[in-house]
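Students often ask why inverse folding is considered easier than folding. One informal answer: many sequences map to the same fold, so there is more than one right answer. In these notes we will look at a single instance of the problem. The structure comes first.
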């Protein structure tokens, strides 16, 4: 990291650019920050994104999820290290690359998590992160098509819409869940998560509303906001333990930019810790092994990795009513295309998952501990080509896994992906939950409501019956549901990376704002929480800036 060793005068001579704030990463959090920090028209803000602009049409059509899942340009296409607890498999970890980040390629599901998630953050000493406090920012971000209420907003930039068409198979799933004692829930985000029902989606009239669409599009013509794409940040520029700028690669050239106030890292739970480690901030032994000068030893950088492991049960369906059937023929594709063009509805406007279920299956759980994503589609891999038979998928995950992993650089090369080890199913509780969640899915599939629809279990299949066989299935086929978090957690203990205002411990001029700051993974999908985190952080950053100006 030669940038760390250069005198300031020499570094800045190569650039000539200076901003009040530099935001690294234009994903779910970075887009929010770029908008909010530039809103007063005064602060000069630079947003750096390693990927391209979000011009690809399939980013904006919800079913385009299948087109972007393995895209070489708009997806980083990471893989974990071989997971010993998962039969030595390298597990594919898609992450969004380009404006909008993962919000441009995700499943569009609107879930906040449970109030208890955030109350536990506050109980760990993170003042201001309790449910009542964060609810204000969920509401601020939200434009819910149902209108405003005590728990929802109707004037924010992030559109949240109902699925307009009720699906025959999804209605049967809801009836089946009620046979098992699960109540119908038409709002998983009211503070009461338990139940079964349709998800709301981050869509507007059938189009995806990514963080880029919601936050960058309205702000991109501001004179005080500069957005640079294809700009891969290679390191932070420091004077001692003070961040003074950023170095990035663009068009084959290294460029340096300086700051007046702060650098905010919003590169996500995988690349935020990687960037800190490359810049000499992290576990000392790791940095030394990779030839990096230790600027500030912070052992928690890259540790505490958490993710939701999904187990996908697939069933053959007795009637041609699934998305597999819609997409099987040219005429079927034409019908769904015309429906989307006319009304913004149908499979093209929904994407993959129509509904969900949250319930308790583990002894001692006071709130739901598993989540289902129900899809009227089946494929060998999430986002892959649908099967040529009528099929559906029950995807289930444990909401609060106890397994912990890490993200660590492999070398001092900023272009080399880091080592990623989630250590799925390494905790006994997680193994128990995996087995019990599959059993629960099978009980649901066997309900009277679903008997006329489900005619065979394709995967795991009838040969997988015992607890050991089910666990073996989980190890052999379990995959990410795309929620890595926790690798730069906030707190005050030895392994914490930021304080409750998201300032990096021991380093001035540097904050982290993305899912990596979560001390524990939220009970659900992570896009809405990532937006909330950035909304709250924006207010804190602006408040701190005013305080500095007042005392200067």
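Output (designed amino acids):
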């Amino acid at each position: 990291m030669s940038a760390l060793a250069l005198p300031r005068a020499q570094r800045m001579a190569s650039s000539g650019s200076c901003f009040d704030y530099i935001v690294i990463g234009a994903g779910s959090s970075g887009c929010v920050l770029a908008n909010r920090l530039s809103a007063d028209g005064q602060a000069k803000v630079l947003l750096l994104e390693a990927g391209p602009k979000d011009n690809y049409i399939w980013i904006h059509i919800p079913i385009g999820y299948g087109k972007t899942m393995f895209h070489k340009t708009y997806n980083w296409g990471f893989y974990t290290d071989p997971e010993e607890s998962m039969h030595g498999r390298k597990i594919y970890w898609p992450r969004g690359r380009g404006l909008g980040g993962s919000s441009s390629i995700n499943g569009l599901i609107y879930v906040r998590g449970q109030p208890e998630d955030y109350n536990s953050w506050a109980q760990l000493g993170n003042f201001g992160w309790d449910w009542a406090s964060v609810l204000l920012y969920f509401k601020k971000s939200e434009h819910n098509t149902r209108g405003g209420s005590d728990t929802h907003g109707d004037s924010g930039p992030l559109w949240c819409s109902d699925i307009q068409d009720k699906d025959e198979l999804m209605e049967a799933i809801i009836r089946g869940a009620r046979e098992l004692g699960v109540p119908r829930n038409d709002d998983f985000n009211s503070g009461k998560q338990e139940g079964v029902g349709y998800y709301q989606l981050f869509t507007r009239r059938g189009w995806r509303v990514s963080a880029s669409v919601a936050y960058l599009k309205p702000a991109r013509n501001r004179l005080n906001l500069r957005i640079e794409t294809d700009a891969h940040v290679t390191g932070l520029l420091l004077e001692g333990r003070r961040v003074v700028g950023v170095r990035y690669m663009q068009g084959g050239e290294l460029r340096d930019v300086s700051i007046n106030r702060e650098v905010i890292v919003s590169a996500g739970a995988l690349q935020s810790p990687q960037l800190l480690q490359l810049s000499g901030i992290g576990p000392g032994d790791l940095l030394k092994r990779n030839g990096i000068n230790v600027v500030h030893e912070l052992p928690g950088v890259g540790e505490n990795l958490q993710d939701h492991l999904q187990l996908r049960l697939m069933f053959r369906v007795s009637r041609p009513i699934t998305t597999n059937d819609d997409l099987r023929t040219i005429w079927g594709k034409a019908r769904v295309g015309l429906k989307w063009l006319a009304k913004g509805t149908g499979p093209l406007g929904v994407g993959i998952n129509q509904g969900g279920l949250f319930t308790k299956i583990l002894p001692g759980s006071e709130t739901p501990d598993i989540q289902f994503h129900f899809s009227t589609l089946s494929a060998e891999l999430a986002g892959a080509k649908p099967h040529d038979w009528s099929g559906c998928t029950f995807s289930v995950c444990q909401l609060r896994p106890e397994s912990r992993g890490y993200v660590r650089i492999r070398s001092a090369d900023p272009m080399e992906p880091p080592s990623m080890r989630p250590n799925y199913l390494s905790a006994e509780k997680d193994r128990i939950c995996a087995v019990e969640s599959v059993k629960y899915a099978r009980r649901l599939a066997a309900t009277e409501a679903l008997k006329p629809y489900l005619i065979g279990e394709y995967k795991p299949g009838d040969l997988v019956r015992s607890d050991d066989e089910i666990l073996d299935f989980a190890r052999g086929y379990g995959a990410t549901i795309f929620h890595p978090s926790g690798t730069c957690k906030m707190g005050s203990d030895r392994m914490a990376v930021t304080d409750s205002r998201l300032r990096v411990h021991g380093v001035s001029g540097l904050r982290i704002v993305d899912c990596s700051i979560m001390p524990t993974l939220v009970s659900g999908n992570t896009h809405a929480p990532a937006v909330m985190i950035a909304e709250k952080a924006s207010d804190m950053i602006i408040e701190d800036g005013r305080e500095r100006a007042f005392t200067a």
